[in-house]
Amino acid sequence: MTLGELARRLECPVEGDAAIEIHRVATIEDAGPGDLTFLANPKYASKLADTKASAVIMNGEPTASAGAAAPCAVIRSQSPYLTFARAAQVLSPPTRPAAGIDALASVAGEAQVDPSATIGAFACVGAGARIGARTIVHPHVVIGADAMIGADCILYPHVSIRERCTIGDRVILQNGAVIGSDGYGFAQRPDGSHEKIPQTGPVVLEDDVEVGANTTIDRPAVGETRIKAGTKIDNLVQIAHGVIVGRNSLLAAQVGIAGSTIVGESVMMGGQAGVGGHLEIGDRVMVAAKTGVTGSIAAGTQMSGYPMQETEGWRKSQAAVRRLPELRKQLRELEERLKRVEEQGSGTRDQGSGTADD
Predict the structure, then answer these.
(1) Most confident listed range (31-45, 57-71, 281-295)
(2) Which of 183, 202, 291, 337: CA 20 to 30 A from 353?
(3) Does residue 338 fall inside a structural domain?
(4) Which of 23, 194, 241, 278 is catalytic?
């Protein structure tokens, strides 16, 4: 594809030779002839002069890229990283398997599969399940009875969608994701043993949700667990029963959210953040990696650390922690000086306590 054609599809202007051929996207360091790269972070501007790329996506205003002159053609964009993502989609379109049900798949007679959908070998579709148009179900996927899958979804191998769960349109489930596993609910008996509480509520994933590999989203005993539209969930995330996650939120790897917590819209949680149960996390909250969320958080707040505190205060406390050895040494020196002063003062008092006869 020529750079001009690519730029036209991206709806961006070109500076330089629009007739050059572009074959793939690459990083600034790795790009060569025929490659397209991008500059979104100013700290990489120094690498631009040495790139071998045929073209680069840069900020829409030439003055905004001062000091970062490109040695190649330029596509101008107000959002270089977003434009790069779209260019990658154009240059690397996904391959699509043929529509139809593989002879080695198991599809219950009562299931409804759109003719344009794809059901791979060894996939299993339960009774009453419904699968929408153009959805791709890869081999070894299990879809439970009465589950509903929307249009244009992609279910990668070993995904499990339990009974009565609902998946919206354009949802992507990466390998090994489990949607609708039993919530962790038990009632204690008088003898100290535990009786399982049946987990019968559904999990609902709204449109344009993506769930990473080996992530688990549990069903509740009552009500529902819901992931709202546009939310993206990384690998190895645990979302417990009855949790609600708002629209367009981002949950990084190994985040854990305990039961019945409500997460607002456009929330960002860093890797290994842990959130307690029955809490409310407001819209646009940012939770740093490894933060322990033990209470509800107001909208627009940034939290870090364990126990959690606002990020600005946490940064100050961490700066103080780095100085602890130095401060400890200073404290010991002050203690020694104070001790000497007290000893000198005590000696002076003793000398002054004598009588005239002495």
Answers:
(1) 281-295
(2) 337
(3) no
(4) 241
